[in-house]
Design goal:
- The structure is a single chain.
- The protein has 8 helices and 12 strands.
- The protein is an alpha+beta fold and 314 residues long.
- The chain folds into 2 domains: 120 residues, no CATH class; 176 residues, no CATH class.
- It has a 4-stranded mixed sheet, covered by helices on one side.
- A hairpin with a 2-residue loop joins β10 and β11.
- α3 packs antiparallel against α5, α4 crosses α5 and α7 runs antiparallel to α8.
- The chain is globular and about 70 Å long.
Amino acid sequence: MPEFASQLLQMYQNTPDSLSLTIKGPAEARMSEKLEGFRLKQVKKGVCKAESYEKTVPLFAIGLHLDLPESGSVQGSHDWYTEGKSVPTYFSASFSNIGGMIKEKPATGGSGVNYTISWNIGEDVNQPWEDPDDDCEKISNKIKWVNKVLETYKDETLRDWARKFHGDGRKGMSEYQKEVEREVSEAFPDTKGNPAGIHSEFQTNPNCTTDDCGAGENAPVIGGIIDGESFSIMEFDSDGDLVSADDDLMNYFRGQNDGFDGIMDHEKQHVDDLTSMGYPKSIDEWAEFEIRGFKQELEHYKRQLMEKDCEPVF
């Protein structure tokens, strides 16, 4: 053990002073920045032509790991090119110059692209002070919202209304869900007093392998939506076991939505239910399906409230 500790200390002593920084792109860049290029399109069998092509690509993160000069001034630029033809699915490019060894990591899924990373990092002492009470208020508001959602899903009168006018199948479930969302949104209006629309950027797709979509007959995927396009965050097998997870994507959404981890607890409960019980087939099953998910989300926010020593919400 002493020998290992000595080796570890020596490794750290030999590591040069460096700066590690991850910069997440703003929403405006994700909406407006596009990659331009060419692609081959089949005109008829055996005949292709090149055409101009552009694709909006979400900018998730740019990572820098740089030598820290004695002057403290950290600035520079680096260009590189990746061979190939495929278009990036999203950006998570990084660059390092530690020890004089240039290391480049292009955007995932992308090739045939020119990259330029420029940096000029200075000192900014005018960062706004963050009041810890603001965190307590945000979490408390999430708890109040989830409590209202649970109250609405538990309302038997609302379920009866949907069954009476729309039936107890898919149509009834759809109309029931719309009415739940309407009631919750009216209870939490926006700053102008208008009903705040409920729009979830996350969803669990059951990926049914049979028409019945029963227990063990689906392989769920939890996805996140960016600019109308769905990206896979986590994939599961028919037993509900995690098959793959996109860490870069999770970090991106976590940076955009401070309730991300609570929402993921909600969605994982849906995965458990889908693989063990199958897809809901009635209004009652749908309501209980959502209640179990929101209960998991609520427990997450309650833990956050305790960890931050905030006043409890009743």
